[in-house]
Design goal:
Elements lengths: L8 E5 H6 L11 H24 L3 E5 L5 H10 L8 E4 L2 H11 L21 E4 L5 H12 L7 H10 L2
Length: 163
C-alpha cells in the first residue's frame, strides 16, 4: 500500500512492535503475566503511533481490534486526530486455509476473533476473500479521498460518550 500513497507514510504493524520484545526469558511467564505483558505492549503501540502522528506523520496501523479496551484506549489516545478506520474482511473458510498454509498458528484462531467487528463502524471496508492485497490496497487509497465526516472514530467516540 505504501507505494500507492502520494506522500510519505509509515506502516506500523502491531506485530513489528511485538517482534522488538526480547524472546529469551529466564523464567516462564504465567497466563496473567503474559496477559499483562501483551496489554502493556498494545498500550505502548497506541502511544508510539500517536507520537508519530503528533509530529505530522501519516501512519497506517495494522491492528486487530479484538478487545473492547483496545478500541476505548484508541478513542482516547487519538482524540483530535484524523483517523480513518479500515475494516478488512475475509470468509472464514479462506481464513482457515490461510492459517493452514502459514503453519504458525492454530487453524481457527482467526475464526474466533469475532470481536474485531463488534464495534460496528468503519469508513472503508475491503474483502480479501477473492481480492488480492494489491487490489485491496488500491481500493483503500481511492476510498481515502471519498471518506465523509463524521468518521467512524468520531461516531464511536460520540456513541461511547452518550452511553
Amino acid at each position: 500500500m505504501l507505494p500507492l500513497l502520494p506522500d510519505p507514510w509509515f506502516l506500523v504493524p502491531v506485530d513489528a512492535i511485538g517482534a522488538m520484545r526480547s524472546t529469551v526469558h529466564t523464567r516462564v511467564l504465567n497466563d496473567a503475566e503474559v496477559s499483562e505483558m501483551l496489554r502493556r505492549t498494545r498500550l505502548g503501540y497506541h502511544r508510539a503511533v500517536a507520537a508519530l502522528a503528533a509530529t505530522g506523520n501519516d501512519v497506517i496501523m495494522d491492528y486487530p481490534l479484538s478487545e473492547q479496551w483496545r478500541m476505548d484506549d484508541l478513542l482516547d489516545t487519538f482524540t483530535g486526530y484524523d483517523v480513518t478506520l479500515v475494516e478488512v474482511r475475509c470468509a472464514q473458510e479462506e481464513l482457515d486455509r490461510r492459517e493452514r498454509v502459514r503453519g504458525d498458528r492454530s487453524v481457527g484462531l482467526a475464526r474466533s476473533q469475532t470481536l474485531v467487528y463488534a464495534h460496528g463502524e468503519a469508513d472503508i471496508v475491503v474483502d480479501t476473500t477473492n481480492t488480492d492485497a494489491n487490489e485491496c490496497a488500491a481500493a483503500v487509497v481511492v476510498a481515502l479521498r471519498e471518506v465523509s465526516s463524521p468518521k467512524a472514530f468520531d461516531r464511536l467516540r460520540h456513541r461511547r460518550d452518550w452511553t
